[in-house]
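[09:14] KT: can someone run the structure on this one? pasting the chain below
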Amino acid sequence: MKIAIDAFGGDNAPLEIVKGAITAVNLIDDVEIVLVGKKQPIVDILSEYGYEGDKIEILEADEVITNEESPTTAIRTKKNSTIVVGCNRLKADDEVVGFISAGSTGAILSGGVFIVGRMPGVLRPALAPTLPNVKGGKSLLIDCGANVDCKPEFLVQFAQMGTIYMKNVCKVENPKVGLLNIGVEDKKGNNLTHEAFGLLSQAKNINFVGNVEARDLLSGDVDVIVADGFHGNIALKASEGAIKNMFKLMKDQINKSGCFAKLGAALMKKTFKKLKSGLDYNLYGGTAFLGVNKIVLKTHGTATAQTILSCVNQVKEIHESGIIENLKASFSENL
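[09:31] RB: done, structure tokens below
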């Protein structure tokens, strides 16, 4: 299979992106990479790192869409940008199964909808990151930013997409679905969550277990957390920030304490390292944009070579799970 990657998206592009592509094709036998971007800088990095194989193709694109630009306007006007060229290749080439970018989130979402195309029957595609939970498994948050204003029926479809993802990709037999809210009681929330709660309670093929709070995002008590994009994004970033600051606080307190604290930290070094790696988003790849016709993956703007390798493995896993076909079959019933 071929996977297209935006070589100039993100803070560390193109160096880390190209390094990640080299690592991916060296470690994964049945994957080829299409790097989208300015040819000469990519060639220079490939040469610098001694890559002489035939599993990396360069697809020329000399423009980059920045975070400061209007996404929809940029998609229309920057026809030779990495995101537009990459999405067009994804749509047109059956051998290319997915597109990865660390670039402008808005532009990637616009490219996914307007170029790759929304699946028939899907009202709104949604961003759905998989998160490590404290039980050692994964939980799916959907949506986390693609749709800041939602209708109740959107949330029901998010639950449907999340359920299918967890069944196909994460092999959870009967995923538990929770609705993100300000309390677990049935009557909590605003008009949107009240109406969504009623619809989810009656929905077929969804194992809806009720409301969940943001503090339970990583608890593993539910497999799919459904939210509108506005509150889902806040919950996700609050969790990421809390984890990052927790490790910083622990490190600062150890350094300020006496020799016994430092000795204890040294003895616990392997445990701390394992805990930190278990919560490291670089090892979990990117965020799938569910509801479009092929695999579109948005990863962090700070993506490293390790992130790109994880994303390639993630696209491979999603493709081999058959979820795209299952989503299309499920939502065709809505037509």
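[09:33] KT: thanks! The longest helix spans residues 229-256.
[09:34] RB: yep, looked fine to me
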